[in-house]
Design brief:
The complex is a heterodimer. By secondary structure, chain A is of the alpha+beta class. Chain A folds into three domains: 27-138 and 201-254 and 259-292, Alpha-Beta Complex (Aldehyde Oxidoreductase, domain 3), CATH 3.90.1170; 295-468 and 633-785, Aldehyde oxidase/xanthine dehydrogenase, molybdopterin binding domain (Aldehyde Oxidoreductase, domain 4, 2-Layer Sandwich); 483-629, Aldehyde oxidase/xanthine dehydrogenase, molybdopterin binding domain (Aldehyde Oxidoreductase, domain 4). Helix content of chain A is 28%, strand content 23%. In chain A, helix 17 (671-691) links the parallel strand 29 (654-664) and strand 30. Chain B has three domains: 5-49, Uridine Diphospho-n-acetylenolpyruvylglucosamine Reductase, domain 2; 56-163, Uridine Diphospho-n-acetylenolpyruvylglucosamine Reductase, domain 3; 167-261, CO dehydrogenase flavoprotein, C-terminal domain (Enolase-like, domain 1, 2-Layer Sandwich), CATH 3.30.390. Chain B has helices at residues 12-19, 33-38, 74-80, 86-92, 98-101, 106-112, 119-126, 139-142, 210-218, 243-261, and strands at residues 5-7, 24-27, 46-49, 59-62, 65-69, 129-132, 136-138, 157-163, 167-174, 181-190, 193-199, 207-208. In chain B, helix 3 (74-80) runs antiparallel to helix 4 (86-92). Chain B is globular and about 55 Å long. Classes of the chains: A alpha+beta, B alpha+beta. Chain A: GO terms for molecular function: iron ion binding; oxidoreductase activity. Chain A: InterPro entries: Ald_Oxase/Xan_DH_a/b, Ald_Oxase/Xan_DH_a/b_sf, Ald_Oxase/xanthine_DH-like, AldOxase/xan_DH_MoCoBD1, AldOxase/xan_DH_MoCoBD2, AldOxase/xan_DH_Mopterin-bd_sf. Chain A: Residues 21-139 form the Aldehyde oxidase/xanthine dehydrogenase a/b hammerhead domain. Chain A: Keywords: Molybdenum, Oxidoreductase.
Chain lengths: 786, 262
């Protein structure tokens, strides 16, 4: 019988009741007394010199409270980058300034250069249109190769060129050269990882509220990590000490990475509300989101695999250009380096690997982490390449992968990380069981009878979650710690509030986290609530991204709960007149081992707060504990994915007929939530593979600037998924043995889709080596034309 | 959205009078106009909503012709002509999503003449008559290029009369983002010949593929189209497909429409 309580129970998500019945409270639902509205004036050219901004007519418009330009932010900090990458010559990356409002120049379409604060939104919009400005358009650099060419227009005049850093990782040159010199076969692939726009359902919103009475500012914002925003904005941008700054991220309607970062609009509303002594709200329109939310991916890569005569992988080298956009967004620099290069070994024991990455400034929206962040880019390159190698060598793509799998753990890769655990054979076995591979030829014939080409695409993935430990990432350039924190507050009557640093914006923490505490204490989940998203309520945790919440914050919660148990046993021991070493906690009851003497959970918690009969000389009253947890390593989820597609050879249209995912997430707390996370991830991966594409023209105009041209996946575009997470190799270094499941689907699915399309085309006699994503009907048709 | 006045007349005569005001603009189902207003791309002084005019709503069928009021929603058309003109019903039932179909109207779609809209293909292939408050316009004369029609300022489409073909089918290949027609082909076989209308493809808006019509009039089968193609010149090329691709799709979809028409 499936478990209905504690760890492993597929409990329905308690937060869904409020989300599905309209009781959620999102940032835009919050309004403050006397609130004003803010509209940003954004550049409509990709690159230009601001000659003048005349706000005098606009200031006289009805309802206008104040108009701000870049001048108002002189002497105020710019938006910081949270990770300093050191390049291969030992030099720090180039770090251009990123003012809250543009100063002197605008550098991408959407770059804000003025802001109107007015009594109503319509008045603010009207006044914004009345601002007279002269921005002299300059040539823009959009293409990364062109940006690196000699004499290219510079995005930042104060930098020597558009190269942010030239970075490498992995084996030394001699080892790589030797591998390729000894190769019996070399497979090469050049590919693009398409630029994406995250498009969470809820656009970004920020509300700044200054309280003159105590000189405190509150920022309500659509963020994945309120404490990080408080630190970055308070310390680096506005100079507001933490005790005078509160950041609240209430219900957030999807983040996918793009709500990790500290944005100009957040700093602006906080600053402006202090200036005018009234609350200031900004709500992004969807059009603004396309040109101001950090974009994702956008890599151009050449990758080569050296194989020996027995098809063993003996060397791998990559050369990637990574688009940073016009400014360095908060974690942008870490994505193509430590979140991408470190994953290039994949599931394979390739002995020599060298990763080269050049990050490039262009006149486009800044690019940063998006679901998977570097790991999808790594997986796509490697798994497309291995598939191509199998095709060139005429060997089975699964057999080639199996032959090269890492099989003994821990395994130190040539690219700086050590996988603690995994079983790639098991997930591949499971996948093969799920997809009825022997029946594929019959299915292909059925498709052919309908005039369609059918293809099967397979891939593996490895990913790294819960980036850590802090002392290591600090050496690698991180400007933040990557621990997390939890406070378990047991109330007098035994109910519990758990204040966590992680933030839930779709992940289901409010359901899954109580399952862990309930399991440990033997009490019902209904007695436990999670508190998150408010810096004034929660301990200093680092928020939610990189599939870290359960592995890192969940571990902190376990540690805090262990402290609770230890203290509660002392209280129980006192009440039972026994040594606390003899006290056992089971089913919410403290028992003296080997006796029938017991006290209930509630008796102990009440004693802690009404300490009439209490060992006051030994322990403090109260029952509240905090723990910070800094992991000793990443966790390494892995898996094997398969996709079957049909291609309409007349139109090039690809339809996904089936999709199977066999994942190893370590131990699973709530299998239903895990399944939902995998579904969502695969949906976004299919979106990237078939539909989504952020396109600029050569002048830096954003062509895919609305849903009329930016194709999001819809229900009809995805199949019913087969997912499995029964292959479990628990993480060896966190107390729950959990890994992370939030990004796996988005990491593992794009290569499966594209591999399947290439396989389908091959079955029709079309020997297409590669099609860049999105594999749109037009691109497939063009590839078939040769 | 800029501020505007809104009027909701209940008769065509009152609507025409209201549209005589300075900077007045008719509002049908609003599926194009409302987003334009929200984006501040349009700034009419007066919006004249046609929503409350009962005389331009509803569907009737008389022998070989269906007559659809200009203010009839796509959803109503899909339901009402399911038996009398199934190909048109299928087309109407596959425009946008349910929210669009329950607001958008046939008159609004034909008046806007978006080059990727579905209804212009049906009207042109059916040899429809566009009836306005002042006159009747043959479909062949009505469509005059992208977003351009024979309608005069202030003229309202009161109904559309569509002769029902013996056989017909509409095949749409959707643009991946907007799900409008990247190319859509409506084939209609009448006793006296075949009409083929193509939407989504041409820079000139909906057009008749006369070469295909001639071939099909002699032999209404997909085979009759083999070797026929439309030139890529003048076809729309954009993020979602080149002119060559659209030209190719016209031939593919026409064959499929003929096959679907049976």
């Amino acid at each position: 019988m499936p478990k209905d309580h504690g760890i492993g129970a597929a409990q329905k998500r308690r937060e869904d009741v409020r989300f599905l019945t309209g009781a959620g409270r999102y940032t835009d639902d919050i309004s403050a007394y006397g609130q004003t509205y803010c509209v940003f004036l954004r550049s409509d050219v990709a690159h230009g010199t601001i000659n003048s901004i005349d706000t005098s007519d606009a200031e006289a418009m009805p309802g206008v409270v104040r108009i701000f330009t870049g001048k108002d932010f002189e002497g105020i900090g710019g938006l910081p980058c949270g990770w300093q990458v050191t390049d291969k010559h030992g030099e720090p990356m180039k770090e251009p300034g990123h003012p809250v409002l543009a100063q002197g120049k605008v550098r991408h379409v959407g770059d804000p250069f003025a802001a109107v604060v007015a009594d109503s939104l319509e008045e603010a919009r009207n006044a914004a249109e009345a601002i007279v400005y002269d921005i002299e358009e300059l040539p823009a650099v959009v293409d990364m190769k062109a940006a690196l060419a000699e004499g290219a227009t510079k995005v930042h005049d104060d930098l020597s060129d558009n190269l942010c850093y030239d970075w490498h990782l992995g084996s030394d040159q001699a080892a790589i050269d030797e591998a390729f010199a000894n190769a019996a076969h070399v497979t090469t692939l050049e590919l693009i990882n398409n630029r994406l726009v995250a498009n969470p359902m809820e656009p970004r919103v920020a509300l700044g509220e200054y309280n003159r009475a105590n000189d405190e500012s509150t920022l309500y914002t659509t963020s994945q990590n309120p404490h990080v925003i408080r630190l970055l904005m308070g310390a680096f941008v506005l100079g507001i000490p933490e005790h005078k700054l509160r950041v609240v991220a209430p219900d957030v309607g999807g983040g996918f990475g793009t709500k990790i970062f500290h944005y100009a609009e957040e700093a602006f509303v906080t600053f402006a509300s202090r200036q005018i002594n009234r609350p200031v709200k900004w709500t992004s329109t969807r059009s603004e989101a396309f040109m101001s939310d950090a974009h994702g991916r956008d890599h151009v890569t050449k990758i080569e695999l050296a194989l020996d005569a027995d098809n063993n992988f003996i060397g791998l080298r990559t050369d990637t250009l990574a688009n940073m956009g016009a400014y360095l967004s908060t974690f942008s620099s870490s994505v193509p380096t430590w979140l991408h290069g470190t994953l290039m070994a994949g599931n394979y024991k390739t002995p020599a690997i060298q990763v080269n990455v050049r990050a490039v400034f262009t006149n486009t929206v800044p690019v940063d982490a998006y679901r998977g962040a570097g790991r999808p880019e790594a997986t796509f390159q490697l798994e497309r390449l291995v598939d191509k190698a199998a095709r060139e060598l005429g060997v089975d793509p699964i057999a080639l992968r199996r032959q090269n799998f890492i099989e003994s753990f821990p395994y130190a890769t040539p690219v700086a990380v050590e996988y603690d655990t995994g079983d790639y054979v098991a997930t591949m076995d499971k996948l093969e069981e799920m997809i009825d591979r022997p029946g594929f030829e019959a299915r292909r014939k059925e498709s052919e009878a309908k005039g369609k080409l059918r293809g099967l695409g397979i891939n593996c993935y490895i990913e790294a979650c819960g980036i850590a430990p802090s002392n290591l990432v600090g050496q690698l350039g991180a400007r933040a710690g990557l621990y997390d924190a939890a406070t378990v507050r047991v109330n007098a009557t035994g109910s519990i509030s758990v204040m966590v640093g992680a933030h839930s914006h779709g992940q289901g923490h409010e359901t899954a986290f109580p399952q862990v505490v309930a399991e440990m204490l033997g009490i019902d989940e209904s007695m436990i609530d999670i508190v998150h998203g408010d810096s004034s309520k929660i301990p200093f945790g680092m928020g939610t991204y990189g599939s870290r919440s359960l592995a890192v914050c969940g571990s902190a919660m376990v540690r805090a709960t262990e402290k609770i148990i230890n203290k509660a046993k002392k209280i129980a021991g006192h009440l039972l007149e026994a040594s606390d070493a003899d006290i056992e906690l089971k089913d919410g009851k403290f028992t003296v081992a080997g006796t029938d003497k017991s006290v209930a959970w509630g008796d102990v918690t009440l004693a802690a707060y009404v300490p009439h009969n209490y060992p006051l000389e030994d322990i403090e009253p109260g029952l509240e504990e905090t723990a910070f947890y800094d992991p000793s390593n990443f966790t390494y989820p892995s898996g094997a994915y398969a996709c079957e597609v049909e291609v309409d050879p007349e139109t090039g249209r690809v339809t996904i007929e089936s999709f199977a995912a066999a994942d190893d997430f370590g131990n699973v707390v709530n299998p239903m939530i895990v399944e939902g996370q995998v579904h969502g991830g695969i949906g976004q991966g299919i979106g990237q593979a078939l539909l989504e594409s952020c396109i600029y023209d050569e002048n830096g105009q954003l062509l895919s600037a609305s849903y009329m041209d930016y194709a999001m996946p819809r229900a009809e575009d995805v199949p019913f998924y087969k997912v499995d997470h029964s292959c479990v190799t628990p993480c060896t270094h966190n107390p729950l043995g959990v890994k992370g499941c939030g990004e796996a689907g988005a990491i593992g699915s794009p290569p499966a889709v594209v591999n399947a399309v290439i396989d389908a085309l091959a079955s029709g006699g079309f020997n297409v080596e590669h099609i860049d994503m999105p594999v749109s009907p037009h691109r497939v048709w063009k590839a078939m034309q040769g | 959205m800029y501020s505007f006045e809104i009027e909701s007349p209940t008769s065509v005569a009152d609507a025409v009078a209201a549209l005589g005001q300075e900077e007045a603009q008719a509002l049908g189902g609003g599926q194009t106009l409302i987003p334009s207003l929200k984006a501040r791309l349009a700034s009419p002084a007066v919006l004249v909503s046609l929503k409350n005019i009962d005389e331009i709503k509803g569907v009737s069928s008389d022998g070989g012709t269906v007559t659809i009021g200009g203010g009839t929603t796509h959803a109503t058309v899909a339901e009402e002509v399911a038996d009398s003109y199934p190909a048109l019903s299928a087309l109407a039932g596959n425009i946008g999503d349910p929210a669009v179909r329950n607001r958008g109207t046939i008159g609004g779609s034909l008046a806007n003449n978006d080059p990727s809209a579905c209804y212009p293909a049906a009207a042109l292939a059916s040899g429809a008559t566009i009836v306005t408050n002042t006159r009747e316009i043959a479909a062949d004369d009505y469509f005059q290029g992208m977003f351009t029609t024979a309608l005069e300022e202030g003229e309202i489409i009161t109904s559309v009369r569509l002769p029902v073909p013996e056989k017909a089918a509409y095949v749409k290949f959707e643009q991946p983002a907007s799900r409008f027609a990247l190319v859509g082909v409506f084939v209609a076989k009448f006793a006296d010949g075949v009409r083929v209308a193509v939407t989504g493809a041409s820079e000139e808006g909906v057009f008749r593929w006369t070469e295909a019509e001639e071939a099909l009039s002699g032999n209404f089968s997909a085979d009759a189209l083999s070797g026929l193609s439309v030139p890529a010149d003048g076809m729309i090329g954009d993020l979602h497909g080149s002119g060559e691709y659209r030209a190719h799709l016209v031939a593919v979809l026409t064959k499929r429409a003929v096959a679907a028409a049976g």
